[in-house]
């Protein structure tokens, strides 16, 4: 019921969203192929992984119709990724851990897009970080739930939520300092990606509650 | 943040929604009885299966309060179906595969209602088809997730998403051609139902990604 | 698309929400510790359990940005509970069945907050009860789904949905009778808590469909 002036989204949200949708849909479609789903399963998982996090974000802040439905580029980005994977998965699988790689890239893009869009809609810094994290982990979490797996975000020994939090925090702090949003967004996405990759490669883990080991 | 004129929904959305709610709630309640849930489990699954898809649709396009809460007939339709099943499940189970049958009917009604409501809210044709599919498969998918099962929409060898897509596409194409919405809606719902039934009866399957067999 | 006057929420929704968030986040964080999740898992489950039900409620009625993002106390309440549990779980676990206890308290607070907020937004009595139940069971259900468990609300022999329904119904009936909302809210929350505790302690169960035993 807030009285909002017309919201002007800068280019950071759009491009970070589109990049996040494409790479996360690649990851979702690859997982579908590995699970031997048919062509519709591949497209459903690509769409879910690519669009669900941003859909949740937009519904929560009241940016409706959500961008995934209102923007003519969002759905095609997910469909393009699914098509690439459907025909090219054997090539892509030659990369080392491609699903993890795509997920890490998407995590950065979405954390930045989510936090930036939250700030644009007048959300405070702390919940803006939460919304960045939710945008980043939401699509992958729903994908994992649909596959009846425990989502990555709850798995021990993977700095997944922390990595998303870092990128979103970069955006929020950069905004508070009045820095230009495009370079700040790039730094945020890179920070998330780097922390996530370092965590996976070197097995960095977060502590458990004292006494729960 | 779109400036929308007051939205006037024709009768197609209302009647397709109500029919979809009733038959999908029948299916959800039957599954609950089969899982030996108690009376509240039966009502919860009927409500989830009947209302969740349309709730997601309405939240995504910003049609809030969602029809499931704002329209006085939606919730009673789901409750009526749950009551019928609670007392009459032994009779209904004599039908051949009643859950599948009710799901197939609901798939058609909801695909039409979802696509039509999306168009009414100014959504473009391609995302309108997506919204029709989401409305159609959402309730059943959430039901399956709550029962810790992989949703039907991801199961191989069932033209479930494609059937919903067909009905939604009929609505979108009919709208583009300026055809009257009621007969187009009936054709769309029938097309979805027919494709789904043919797929189940004759074991029609969709292809997997090349090289993933 | 309803033309709503500026909505004035009384103190009942705020305080019931905050109390519900804190105790349900305690329960969610405790479950995370028991599942040996790391510090981020503990915070994620606390946030999900504490905030998801109210987020769903607010999205469904169009109260966006949702209170969990717009109100400066909501997210900190969940974070505080997670912190308390992270460092103090060994103390808390000495209580008898603390997760069940916190869940029962949260069930009452959220049922009242959900039903009251629904009425304030002009929702009819019957769907207002549904929204109270959804607010009450939503966070815990999502938490259970993320942990790949069947949600409590579907488990046989636990008057979980009925207890939430009772508290929400007290609010709706009290409102219809023109009674003051604060004492009615307290009675509603207590009624839910009491019925839930009695059900657990004495093994009260709901009937199954005739012939499904």
Radius of gyration of chain A: 17 Å
Count of individual beta strands of chain A: 0
Structure annotation, total helices of chain A: 8
Helix content of chain A: over 70%
Oligomer: homotrimer
Largest sheet of chain A: none
Derived from helix and strand composition plus strand pairing, the structural class of chain A reads mainly alpha
Transmembrane segments (chains A, B, C): 12-33, 40-61, 73-92, 99-116, 128-147, 159-178, 184-204
Pfam family, one (chains A, B, C): Gly_transporter
Domain Glycine transporter (chains A, B, C): 14-89, 101-173
Keywords (chains A, B, C): Cell membrane, Membrane, Transmembrane, Transmembrane helix
Keyphrases for this structure?
globular; 213 residues; mainly alpha; cell membrane (chains A, B, C); 72% helix; homotrimer
In short:
Chain A is an all-alpha fold and 213 residues long. Chain A has eight helices and no strands.
Structure notes:
The structure is a homotrimer of 213-residue chains. Chain A has helices spanning 11-34, 39-61, 67-70, 74-92, 98-120, 125-146, 160-176, 181-202. Chain A has one domain. The first copy, chain A, is built from eight helices and no strands. With 213 residues, chain A is an all-alpha fold. The termini of chain A are far apart. In chain A, helix 1 runs antiparallel to helix 5 (98-120). At the A-C interface, helix 2, helix 6 and helix 7 of A face helix 1, helix 2, helix 3 and helix 4 of C.
